[in-house]
Design goal:
alpha/beta, five-stranded mixed sheet, 8 strands
């Protein structure tokens, strides 16, 4: 009996530990994505003052998930980590439960953008994990380390260093695995179309009328039979009664000239090769406007390839617009943060096709390939 219990605890440790390691590594591939998801939660609660710290929270959270997973598998200091894991899964369960019951958060970001889960799926997963971690918590005193303390510390330090280095790399060079609709090889116009066999939202028209000082709502089916001039019309709205899945992967991509002319279709429908540099703002302008940038400008001019700088920072763009051999386009800042995780990021385009995509830091590797 004791052997079966020991074996069951070992299986649970490995299952929970590997899941936390996997979750941490997937999100470490794109820590900015997790930070944006945290901002979504904070904004739903009107906690805007936390927005400046979400990236730090994201980086620490990803490291801790992997660290906790490794500690759990080797059984190191289970009295401490069982408490930490229990508190963490209670917190996660609260977040996913809030997302599911409030309807304000579409995806919870548990496994980043690579494995999007619905709030209901995320909440169910966390409830199962909560049960498993409660079992480990109850028997924490019976779990002993599988390795000696020095080896355990080496494993944990190596885990922290590996995840830290991974996150530092992708923050400069873009994620290793791009799971967003703006990834290399995608066609932006196709990504702007609803998924095949998509079901649109089911919408009903709701009418508001005032009669005898009382305001009531009616649908087309429930309009009163005696509707006449004694009913004062107030408003008509469309109410979603059943949510569909017709939202395209890219729903809000639009490019405007500095004169606010929409040039999205003209550019994406073209058959020309061109380069877009997505720079949300110009806070690191001096970093990407370097010698490699100047070489790129010469190469593009020689090959007659058009170059555009896409930004959400119109004010600062107007200050430098005459100093660069490029056309400036305006785009929503949230779209740019999604399309380009590094500020700034190059997109090599052919019409709507994304031929290549890379960070400004890696520009020297791509010179001569355009």
């Amino acid at each position: 009996m004791a052997t079966n219990k020991k074996y069951s605890l070992l299986v649970i440790r490995w299952l929970v530990g590997l899941l936390f390691i996997f979750s941490g590594l997937v999100k470490a591939n794109d820590p900015l994505g997790l930070s944006y998801k945290m901002q979504e939660f904070f904004e739903a609660w009107n906690w805007y003052f936390f927005n400046d710290y979400t990236l730090a929270f994201s980086l620490v959270m990803n490291v801790f998930e992997v660290l906790a997973g490794v500690a759990l598998i080797i059984g190191w200091r289970m009295k401490l980590f069982s408490w930490l894991l229990l508190l963490l899964i209670i917190f996660f369960s609260f977040l996913t439960g809030y997302a599911m019951f409030s309807g304000k958060i579409k995806t919870c970001g548990c496994f980043g953008d690579c494995l999007p889960l619905t709030p209901a799926q995320s909440f169910s997963k966390d409830l199962i994990l909560l049960v498993l971690i409660l079992i480990l918590f109850m028997y924490r005193k019976k779990i002993t380390s599988a390795v000696n303390p020095i080896v355990a510390i080496v494993f944990l330090v190596a885990s922290v260093a590996t995840v830290g280095e991974l996150q530092a790399h992708v923050m400069k060079h873009l994620p290793f695995v791009d799971c967003l609709p703006y990834k290399k090889g995608n066609n932006i116009l196709k990504e702007m179309q609803p998924p095949p066999n998509a079901i649109p939202d089911s919408v009903v028209m709701v009418f508001k009328y005032r009669k005898d000082g009382e305001v009531k709502e009616y649908t087309t089916e429930t309009l009163p039979a005696d509707l006449d001039s004694t009913y004062e019309f107030i408003d008509r709205t469309d109410k979603v009664v059943r949510k569909g899945n017709a939202t395209p992967p890219i729903a809000d991509f639009a490019l405007f000239t500095m004169n606010d002319t929409d040039t999205t279709d003209a550019l994406l429908q073209s058959q020309d090769k061109y380069v877009l540099l997505f720079a949300k703002d110009f806070s690191n302008f001096q970093k990407w406007m370097n010698d490699d940038f100047k070489k790129l400008m010469q190469e593009l001019q020689q090959k007659h390839i058009h170059f555009f700088i896409v930004t959400a920072d119109k004010q600062n763009a107007e200050k430098i617009i005459g100093n660069l051999p490029a056309d400036f386009l305006l785009c929503d800042g949230t779209v740019i943060k999604t399309a380009a995780r590094v500020n700034a990021t190059y997109f090599v385009m052919n019409g709507a096709d994304i031929i290549d995509k890379f960070s400004y830091i890696d520009l020297n590797k791509h010179l001569g390939e355009l």
